[in-house]
C-alpha cells in the first residue's frame, strides 16, 4: 500500500520534501499535504484541520509549526475538499481519510512515534480515530469533543450541522456514532488538552467536558489552558503552546523508550 500520486509543491525547505499526495480511502481518491524529512523519520505528526471547505484549509505554515529534522508532518484535506473526491461527512465516513493514510505511513515508517494534533473541528476527527491508529499521544487544540454541545452553543453553525449530520433529536444514530467520549477509557493513549479561555469558535466548555470524562475513567491526560487567548493564540502565546506541545511529544517518546528498555 502506498500513495498513488505525489505532486511536488513549490516550497523551498532545506530539510523536507513537500508533496501533495493522493491515496485511496474507500472508493475515493483523496488528498493531503505531506512534509517528509530527508533524514530518517523518527516521528510522525498528523495535523487534523478544522473548518470546512476553504475555511480552515490545510496550510503549509501551520504544518511547519510541528517540524523538526526527523519529523514527518501529514495533513489530510478530507474528502470533498481541495480536489479530493467524495463529500465531506463531518466526523463520519471521512474518518477513513485519516485511517487510510495512516496505514500507508505506519507501513513505511513502522518504528516512528505517532502524534495526532486535532484543531477545532479536527478535535472530534482525532478523538474518533486516535485509538484506531494506536497513536503514541493525541493533542486536541481548541477542539470539539462533543458534537451535541457544539450544536447547542454555536447557533450560527446549526444549519451546517443539520445539513451534514442532522438534527440531534432526529438523527440520534448519527450523533451516537460521533460520540467519541463513549469509547475513551483508561487505556487510551495520553491526551494533551489545549484551549483558550476566550475561544468563541469552540468554547472552552468543550475542553472541560473532555477533561471531566478523562478524569472519571482514569485516562492519562494533561491540560494547558490559556485563559486570555481566543481560538488562535496571539504570537507570544502561540510560541508558548508550541513549546508545550513539543515538550509533551518528547516526554511521551522518552517514556515509551524507557518502557522498551525495561
Automatic annotation (TrEMBL):
<dbReference type="InterPro" id="IPR001375">
    <property type="entry name" value="Peptidase_S9_cat"/>
</dbReference>
<feature type="domain" description="Peptidase S9 prolyl oligopeptidase catalytic">
    <location>
        <begin position="65"/>
        <end position="251"/>
    </location>
</feature>
<dbReference type="InterPro" id="IPR029058">
    <property type="entry name" value="AB_hydrolase_fold"/>
</dbReference>
<dbReference type="Pfam" id="PF00326">
    <property type="entry name" value="Peptidase_S9"/>
</dbReference>
<protein>
    <submittedName>
        <fullName>Prolyl oligopeptidase family serine peptidase</fullName>
    </submittedName>
</protein>
Amino acid at each position: 500500500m502506498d500513495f498513488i500520486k505525489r505532486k511536488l509543491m513549490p516550497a523551498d525547505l532545506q530539510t523536507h520534501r513537500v508533496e501533495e499526495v493522493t491515496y485511496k480511502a474507500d472508493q475515493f481518491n483523496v488528498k493531503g499535504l505531506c512534509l517528509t524529512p530527508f533524514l530518517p523519520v523518527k516521528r510522525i505528526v498528523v495535523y487534523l484541520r478544522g473548518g470546512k471547505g476553504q475555511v480552515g484549509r490545510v496550510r503549509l505554515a501551520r504544518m511547519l509549526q510541528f517540524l523538526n529534522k526527523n519529523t514527518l508532518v501529514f495533513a489530510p484535506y478530507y474528502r470533498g475538499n481541495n480536489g479530493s473526491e467524495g463529500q465531506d461527512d463531518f466526523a463520519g465516513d471521512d474518518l477513513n481519510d485519516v485511517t487510510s493514510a495512516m496505514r500507508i505511513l505506519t507501513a513505511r515508517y513502522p518504528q516512528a512515534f505517532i502524534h495526532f494534533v486535532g484543531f477545532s473541528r479536527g478535535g472530534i476527527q482525532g478523538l474518533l480515530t486516535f485509538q484506531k491508529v494506536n497513536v503514541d499521544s493525541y493533542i486536541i487544540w481548541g477542539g470539539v469533543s462533543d458534537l451535541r454541545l457544539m450544536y447547542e452553543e454555536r447557533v450560527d453553525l446549526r444549519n451546517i450541522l443539520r445539513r451534514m449530520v442532522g438534527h440531534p433529536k432526529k438523527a440520534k444514530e448519527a450523533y451516537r456514532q460521533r460520540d467519541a467520549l463513549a469509547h475513551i477509557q483508561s487505556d487510551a493513549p495520553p491526551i494533551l488538552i489545549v484551549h483558550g479561555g476566550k475561544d468563541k469558535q469552540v468554547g472552552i466548555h468543550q475542553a472541560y467536558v473532555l477533561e471531566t470524562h478523562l478524569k472519571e475513567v482514569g485516562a492519562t491526560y494533561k491540560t494547558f489552558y490559556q485563559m486570555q487567548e481566543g481560538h488562535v493564540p496571539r504570537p507570544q502565546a502561540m510560541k508558548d503552546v508550541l513549546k508545550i506541545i513539543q515538550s509533551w511529544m518528547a516526554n511521551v517518546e522518552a517514556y515509551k523508550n524507557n518502557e522498551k528498555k525495561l
